[in-house]
Amino acid sequence: MKQKVKQRLSMFLGMILAVSLILSGCGNSGNSGSSDSSASGGNEGGADSGKQVTIKYYNWDNEAQAVGTDAMLQEFMTQNPDIKVEHVVLVPGDSVEMLKKLDFLISSGEAIDVVQMPSVGAVLERATRGALAPLNEFYEKEKLVPEDEYYVNPKVGDKYYGMQYTKSVNYVMLNKDALDEAGLEVPKFGWTWDDYREYAKKLNKGEGVDKRYGTYFHTWELYMNAPAQTMMKDPFLYDDGTTILSDPTYKYFFQLRKDMETVDKSAKPYADVLAAKLNYRTEFFNEEAAMILTGNWTIADPGNTEQYPHDFKTAFAPVPVPPKGSEPKGYEGKYFTSGSQVAMGANSENKEAAFKLMRFMSTADSDNRPEFSGYKKANNEELLNKLVAGKENMYDMDSLKYTLFDDEIQYLDAPEVMATVTSEVTKVIDDGFSRFMLNNEPIEDVQKWMVDEATKLINEKGVIK
Predict the structure, then answer these.
(1) Is residue 159 helix, strand or coil?
(2) Of 346, 243, 336, which Cα lies nearest the Cα of 295?
(3) 173: helix, strand or coil
(4) CA-closest candidate to residue 336, choices 321, 314, 326, 324
(5) Is the pTM of this model over 0.70?
(6) What distance in Å separates the CA atoms of residue 226 and residue 429, rounded to the nearest whole number?
(7) Using an 8 Å Cβ cutoff, are 26 and 380 in contact?
């Protein structure tokens, strides 16, 4: 799940936001709810017993991120003097290696109190192994409904295992000057990928080395089937555990990509993107492309004109939805949102204190929070204002706030099942896309091959339920 209070603070927060969200690919303050919690559970004496307890908070902070985390933990301890929190950075800046070290600690019997996990999948995988404590009894004692509190709530059966800490969403960045020049409005929720194609055609400008393409698609699977990656609970599996690579959106979006390259010539050819090893940020800010699908880790970029020199204003729009007849199976008209989670170790000896800390970290509207919160009642707009402070003239602020915060835009909860072979299935998607785009194999043959390969992987290694 990149700008000073005023300029330096904004740049600092933006850098942390970008790093944290990539590692993860995210009303009223929650302070009172967390610090006044009286939930008890397990075998501990309790955080309200008058005796100070010590708990540990594990994550993968780099040096810059640790500053914000330590400040938030100090806020918590000031409000809860009966709880001391030790911040344990397992592997700085590397969530993958951090999870390996965490698993080693769990297997060796170390009591894990609270741990930040980079994804829902990381939570569910360890919950199914019995490494995490369910949170139901704590929620019930506090009379909390998780779905009212957080956007994404990882569950195994009817048991909850994580609280969403950060929130990451996708959106489209658009060159506002180019839109005005073409007489195009900034799109709103409900525009389709067919509309996106028409926008790209109208935003094409020039020829040869001076050409500005209507859009740019990078090499990640996000750009190979955007509807599957942005509007389904899991980009690899249906709720019944079968592969989503059979979904009609694959045929639709693969063909859309090819038509935009070969017919409209509004997107830089995939072969050229691979060969040149292009950077998607510079493609947009150098005006090589007028639109790009990306995510909120790039919020600080339009204002960072030192790193990305440009003089146009950037507008924002929700990700296009699939047109009628091309919707994915089980389509709800809501967007996928990811982000890190906080979870409690099954063998924590201070579960009451751990739950308090989890609620604080996931709900507090702290000045030290560097990333958008996954708490539905959080004041994420205040953080946004810090990220763009002093650089507002580089943003179409109305479209940015609409895209991030409008109630019309809704989000999907956690999936019921998840694949344990995500890297392997991702390779199948990459290979299938290359066979279609570069080798010109028929889409029907490519999709059948993708489904067969993914099904083999799923049958061999199973799914998380």
Answers:
(1) strand
(2) 336
(3) strand
(4) 321
(5) yes
(6) 12
(7) no
